[in-house]
Amino acid sequence: MIRHILFCIIFFFSIFSFAQKNKEKPNWFPKHARYIANNDTLNYRILLPQNFDETKKY
User: Fold this and answer.
1) How many folded domains does the chain comprise?
2) What distance in Å separates the CA atoms of residue 33 and residue 27, rounded to the nearest whole number?
3) Would the pTM of this model clear 0.90, i.e. be above it?
């Protein structure tokens, strides 16, 4: 039991330390989540379809 807890602590510590070192170039993020690493705000255009026209009334 203690070995499992120590393994989890070491595992998460290594992931977060790697994330802090590579904060400038987050190549370990999936492609759909890279905007989270680049800035802390969610861009609403990501949620819209590519051919979405804001001038039209749907």
Assistant:
1) 1
2) 11
3) no
